[in-house]
Amino acid sequence: MHCFWWDKSVELELGETGGYRAVKSTREAVECLLLRWPQHDGRALAAAKRTCLQALDGKIAIEKARRAFIKAAEEAHISIRSQ
Fold first, then answer.
1. Count of other CB atoms within 10 angstroms of residue 12
2. What is the structure's pLDDT at 1?
3. How confident is the model at residue 82 (pLDDT cuts 50, 70, 90)?
4. What is the DSSP pairing of strand 5-13 with strand 80-82?
5. What is the DSSP letter of 7?
6. pTM for the full predicted model
7. What is the pLDDT of residues 11-67, one digit of tens each?
């Protein structure tokens, strides 16, 4: 079975100000991107969705999904506490 856990979590501010969420896996990233993301369009967002779903299918490395997730957060101006 393919492991989707990241070596290092990404802590980002989603929702209320000062409330950080630690995203620890590709599955959690997909959930954030699809259900909790503050914007609904953007080049990096589309790339992150595609990349994370491909990683879940085992087609690409999960580290690429993590990097794409961070880029989408930067595009959305989401505060990231750890990368």
1. 22
2. 41
3. confident
4. antiparallel
5. E
6. 0.91
7. 999 877 778 999 999 999 999 999 999 999 999 999 999 999 999 999 999 999 999
Phi, psi (deg, nearest 5) at residue 2: -75, 135
Residues in the chain, how many? 83
Query: CA 73, 77, 79: angle at the middle one, nearest 5?
Result: 75
Alpha helices in 1-83 (DSSP H): 26-31, 43-56, 62-75
Token pair 């909790």: residue: 36
Helix, strand or coil, per DSSP, at residue 18: coil
If you search the block for the tokens 């999960």, which residue do you land on? 62
Residue 28's φ and ψ, nearest 5 degrees, are -65, -35
- 């501010």: which residue's tokens? 13
* DSSP 3-state of 24: strand
